[in-house]
Amino acid sequence: MTLRTAIKFTYTDYKNLPESETARYELLGGDLVMVPSPNEYHQRISGNLQFLLRSFVRERGLGIVYHAPFDVVLSPENVVQPDILFIAAERAHIITEDNVQGAPDLVIEILSPATAGRDRTYKRTLYARYGVGEYWLVDPVGRRIEVLTLGERGFERAAEYGGDEVLHSPLLPGLEIDLREVF
Predict the structure, then answer these.
(1) CA–CA separation, 144 vs 179, rounded Å?
(2) Model-level pTM?
(3) Burial level of 176, CB count in 10 A (0-12/13-18/19+)?
(4) For residue 89, what is the DSSP state?
(5) What's the mean per-residue pLDDT of the chain?
(6) Closest CA to 111 of 145, 86, 81
(7) Phi and psi of 45, rounded to 5°?
(8) Is the peptide bond before 104 cis (omega within 30 degrees of 0)?
(9) What's the Cα-to-Cα distance from 62 to each of 28, 52, 70, 72, 91, rounded to whole Å?
(10) From the CB of residue 173, how many other CB atoms can be counted at a distance below 10 Å?
(11) How do residues 15-52 score in pLDDT, each as one tens digit?
């Protein structure tokens, strides 16, 4: 559900919303967008991916991995809560107590019927515009992960993995994720 009005919301407005234990929101172009609670399979995939990525990153001291809900403030009118995000150690200065101030190095979105269209189009463009280096689109139904890297004209497909393949990340050399451990 998107709340569209002639008035655009800012991060200050967003932070002053009444807290709710059941509702998550993102701020996209000044429009307040409710993000539905993920289902069990989504949560399982997210947990598996987060564990595998976090283990790799931690063992090598590469940075920090977070999971939703955690605000990523791209601009005063664009605040997102990616399912999983990675910030390289040398860019840790963008992490504050309350949020991330700027583009993560890696964003992972797990598609759902309610968010797939927005994740594939609007957020893909938004993440590219603000400089996210790598973007993964995880398709739970197709059991596939599309890896996109930022190029001169936006995101370009680096690879797509499915079945029993092993995902490799251009951003994180040496990272190998066996999709059987994800799905």
Answers:
(1) 8
(2) 0.93
(3) exposed
(4) G
(5) 94
(6) 145
(7) -60, -45
(8) no
(9) 29, 14, 20, 19, 10
(10) 7
(11) 888 776 546 889 999 999 988 889 999 999 999 999 99
